[in-house]
Amino acid sequence: MDNQAIKSMNLYSQVERIYSDLRAMGIADDAPLDVETLTPFDQYHYFGTDAVDEAIAMTGITAGSTVLDVGSGLGGPARYLAKATGCKVTALELQEDLNEVAAKLTDRCGLSGNIDHVCADVLAWQAPAESHDQLMSYLALYHIDDPTTLFATCATALKPGGRIYIEDLYGLGEFTDEEQRHLRHMLYGQNMASRTQYILDLQNAGFTDIAFTDMTGPWTGFCRERLEAYRAGRERQEAVHGRQVVEALDEFYATVLGLFEGGNMGGVRVTATKA
Ligand SMILES: C[S@@+](CC[C@H](N)C(=O)[O-])C[C@H]1O[C@@H](n2cnc3c(N)ncnc32)[C@H](O)[C@@H]1O
């Protein structure tokens, strides 16, 4: 996978902007942190830590669990999970800058003993066999163009009976030419499988007990409110981040909302078990 092409998605530009958010709260770059302070800024998916609570409940993560987080971003879900349960997490992230910021934030939260930040493309990663009890992944897998290798790697990394919790995007209908352009560029969408294909890909990798729950309605509402809130706070955002960053994020939030509202892009929560 081309590690730079994904930067066409504005969310991944200037990821150090989280330090500006913290400085605006009077928190210096080397000050200790707690997970709750970070959660407004470090969750790159929908419904923040509520979505991580869902993963904990639906896959049975406990203090004794070892969890693989595929596409861990700034590490927000991993840190919340580790703090909430005491489990160990392997946080696998493709982009070096995100991974570096993630590891620093984890250290400042005192959670380095729980979270191992690994910078790697999951497609090239040599998964230690049967090394994890659960797997979670938030809005990362649609970036990956080879579901066969992806789900085979996930299966390898899990112990038999291991549970997975995925939040992802998928294809509901035929994308227009303009939607395809937005998907390729602004979302860096490499795999918008249909429901049928998604389930088949998981079955072929040896997963059973597959529950595929459409989340398009609530996620569309979330994205609408996110854009409205961002625009309402624009003056403050520009003071903290500068106009360029704010315009890029506004464009990203508006494009995602337009795709959901167009009715061809869906959101999904998948749970399954490794046989
Ligand atoms: C929308 S972000 C979500 C980050 C995090 N899961 C969260 O919810 O805050 C998706 C992440 O998946 C990562 N990713 C995409 N393709 C990947 C791959 N092939 N291997 C590992 N990580 C990948 C991206 O770099 C990005 O940080």
Detail the topology: elements first, then pairings:
Blueprint: H1 17-24, H2 35-38, H3 48-59, E1 66-70, H4 76-85, E2 88-93, H5 96-108, E3 115-119, E4 132-138, H6 147-157, E5 158-171, H7 177-185, H8 195-204, E6 207-214, H9 216-232, H10 234-241, H11 243-262, E7 265-274
Helix pairs in contact: 3-4, 9-11, 10-11
The structure holds S-adenosylmethionine (SAM).
Residues 1, 6, 43-45, 71-73, 76-77, 92-95, 98, 121-123, 138-140, 143-144 line the site of S-adenosylmethionine (SAM).
How would you explain this protein's 3D organization?
By secondary structure, the protein is of the alpha/beta class. The chain has one domain: Vaccinia Virus protein VP39 (Rossmann fold, 3-Layer(aba) Sandwich). It is built from eleven helices and seven strands. The longest helix has 20 residues. The model has no long low-confidence stretch (mean pLDDT 97). S-adenosylmethionine binds next to helix 4 and strand 2.
Number of E-state strands: 7
Given as residue ranges, the uncertain stretches (5+ residues, pLDDT < 50) are none
Number of helices: 11
**How large a portion of the residues is in β-strands, by DSSP E?**
15-25%
In CATH, the topology is named: Rossmann fold
Helix amount: 40-55%
CATH level 1 name: Alpha Beta
What is the straight-line distance between the termini? Answer: 29 Å
What's the main sheet like?
Answer: 7 strands, mixed
Mean pLDDT: 97
What's the helix-strand series?
A: HHHEHEHEEHEHHEHHHE
Short structural summary:
The chain has 275 residues and is α/β, with parallel strands linked by helices. Helices cover 44% and strands 20% of the residues.
